[in-house]
Amino acid sequence: MYEMKTCPSCGAQMFADMDVCYECLNGYCEEGERVPEEAYEEVAVPTSKDDGAWCLRISTSVLDVTVGIPKTGIVIGRGSSCDVVLHAQAVSRKHVSIEPIGSVLVVRDLGATNRATVNGRVIDEEATLRKGDVLEVCGTSFGVGRTNRLEHKGSGGSSK
Fold first, then answer.
1. 84-85 and 117-118: which strand pairing?
2. Residues 8-11: contacts with CB within 8 Å, 24+ apart?
3. Whole-angstrom Cα distance, residue 146 to residue 160?
4. CB-CB contact of 108 with 100 (8 Å)
5. Degrees (nearest 5) of the Cα angle 35, 143, 40?
6. What is the pLDDT along the chain (160 residues), one digit of tens a residue?
7. How far are the Cα atoms of 1, 7, 36, 51, 89 from residue 18, in angstroms, in the given order?
């Protein structure tokens, strides 16, 4: 079993090697630090008026984060070169990749020791993700969805 610790800010349980609490984002940035403009680069362009860009949503009682899936896909893992970095020893350096193919997303296991699941079913080599599915990687859940419009600051997108 992995060594655990308690977040000093919200009391959530987290792996001992984690520097950031995913419940409250304690430790994510220094006071007054801002998100760099590069973080708002354009994600996948909707294919029609009814289709939005693919996205993954991490939602907890104190956190609601949406990560856009670009046409080239993303990699989730512990390594700093990943598009979505999870700071837990249970997560492989490169755990899974997600790529839009036609009207679905395809998630591929990248040789992880601790297998990811889709709706509670273990991913053997690859699985199809559809809107409403839940991908879980070592305790972090990602809701699969579509955005109706792109909301970012980078290239003139609208904001709420």
1. unpaired
2. 10/62
3. 17
4. no
5. 20
6. 568 888 777 677 777 777 766 666 666 555 555 444 444 343 444 444 445 688 898 765 556 788 889 889 999 999 989 988 888 889 999 999 999 988 889 999 999 999 999 999 999 899 999 888 999 998 888 999 887 644 443 344 433 3
7. 15, 10, 22, 36, 8
Please give the structure tokens belonging to residue 7.
């977040």
3-state SS, residue 39: helix
For residue 120, which phi and psi values (nearest 5 degrees)? 85, -5
Q: Using the CB atoms, write b or e for 15-45: b if 16+ within 10 Å.
A: beebebbbbbbbeeeeeeeeeeeeebeebbe
Q: Where are the beta strands (DSSP E) in the chain?
A: 4-6, 13-15, 54-59, 64-68, 74-77, 84-85, 96-101, 104-109, 117-118, 121-122, 126-129, 134-137, 140-146
Instruction: Locate 84 and state its tokens.
Output: 């979505």
